[in-house]
Amino acid sequence: MQFSDEEIEQLRPRVRFKVCYEVGFLCPDVDDIVQETLTRFFIAAKDDKVRNTSALGAFLNGICRNVISEYRRRALRDEPVPETVPEPAGKGLQDADLFEMRDAIASGMEQLSLRDRRILRAYYLEEKSKEEILKVTGMTDENFRVVLCRAKERFRNIYLEQTKHRGL
Amino acid sequence: MSLSDMELDFHSDVVLRDRLVTNYLYRQLSADLVDALESHYLECNECYQEMRGTELLIRGLAEPILERKQVNDVTVIRFTESSQLLAASLELAELTKAIRLENDTKVLIDLSKVSRIDSTGLGVLMNCYCHAVKNSGALKLLHPEASVKHVLNVTKIDSVLQTFEDETDAIRSFDRLQASS
Q1: Do the chains contact at A152 and B58, CB–CB below 8 Å?
Q2: Looking at chain A from residue 61 to 120, which residues have their Cβ under 8 Å from any Cβ of chain B?
Q3: What integer pLDDT is reported at residue B154 of this predicted model?
Q4: What pLDDT is recorded for position B140?
Q5: Contact A61 B54 (CB under 8 A)
Q6: What is the pLDDT of residue A90?
């Protein structure tokens, strides 16, 4: 099984995100883990070791999980055992890349109407259900989907634009 | 929700996918679902981009709508964006939380960005005022817009809640309150 350069470049940020999610966005060894994962994956693919080609994501995910487990075992072996157990990777969003994108995020927020921002804040931050929001705002289900899709489309474009500029 | 449900609906139901992605970002998914979602987005560009877009959106939304600053022992609260204090407004909950949970007793609320207020909004302001007074403090208002000022005047709430146009004067008035008590 062969992959084009474009396919390889598309895989790298996704694997990187998964690794960051597991080991924390500030871990200094993220790029090494990503590289090791991709190397093993491409070698396995080249040697036709992928049994189910329709589940490549699951296969890659499995390799990545193994590499992360090995990394953790090695890190525990090499370093003295800490007196207090370290905190797991924090809840919520903490990617340093997001900090770099703050201006683009702020400009995206300005493009949202006040009403949309209120609805989205209730949905994402206050974890109100769709039904609760519909009841309070008097919106229809269709309107809600439009608000959600429109906002997400805008921010997906911001993400694509930013990654293009920064080569992430 | 089972894995099979997710596979069935992952692309067809926008809201369901969004809920899964959001729960993943907040680390609220079960291990099985995390595994399934990761296996999926590693090979699905659309879902990966959707997730990163959602991440940016949440980051943007998380910027606080209320800004607090401390001047001497007075807490000045202002709205960072144009707001309305109406029954359906999220700002009301934010405002109540900002005052009652923080236990501030000398509070000055800058209303310059509040364009409308209704009876529920007035009720919340009065509740916050009572909370401050009960704790030997005070709550005052700064720069209300003409429409808000009119409502405060008609309801005679401005005879209870002191209103100022100048921040320095407003802050000084809290000193006088302390001296008289």
Answers
A1: no
A2: 61, 64, 89, 91-93, 95, 98, 101-102, 104-106, 108-109, 114, 117-118, 120
A3: 93
A4: 94
A5: no
A6: 43
Q: Which pLDDT belongs to residue B170?
A: 92
Contact between B43 and A125 using a beta-carbon 8 Å cutoff: no
Residue numbers of chain A with a pLDDT score lower than 70 = 79-100, 102, 165-168
3 state DSSP class of B72: coil
From A93, A117, A151, residue closest to B25, measured CB to CB: A93
In this structure, the dihedral spanned by the alpha carbons of residues B109, B112, B114 and B120, taken in order and rounded to 10 degrees, is: 40
User: Mapping DSSP to helix (H, G, I), strand (E, B) and coil, where does residue B162 land?
Assistant: coil
Q: What is the pLDDT of residue A87?
A: 45
Q: DSSP letter string over B5-71?
A: HHHHHTTT-HHHHHHHHHHHHTT-S-HHHHHHHHHHHTT-HHHHHHHHHHHHHHHHHTS-SEEEEEE
What own/partner pairs with CB < 8 Å and gap ≥ 24 does A17-25 have?
A: A17/B48, A17/B51, A17/B52, A18/A61, A18/A64, A18/B38, A18/B42, A19/A64, A19/A68, A20/A95, A21/A89, A22/A68, A22/A89, A23/A68, A23/A71, A23/A72, A23/A89, A24/A89, A24/A90, A24/A94, A25/A89, A25/A94, A25/A95, A25/A96
Contacts of B41 in chain A (CB under 8 A): 14, 57
Q: Pick from A54, A70, A59, A58: which is nearest to A22 by CA?
A: A70
Model pLDDT for residues B42-89, shown as the tens digit of each residue: 988 888 988 888 888 887 887 667 888 888 889 999 887 777 887 756
B80 contacts B66 by C-beta, under 8 angstroms: yes
List the structure tokens of B102: 């923080």
| Chain A residues whose beta carbon lies within 8 Å of the beta carbon of residue B49 | 156, 159-160
Confidence (pTM): 0.62
Give B46 to chain A, closest Cα distance, Å.
10
pLDDT tens profile B86-132:
775 667 767 877 777 667 778 999 999 898 898 988 998 998 898 88
Say yes or no to pLDDT of B41 above 70: yes
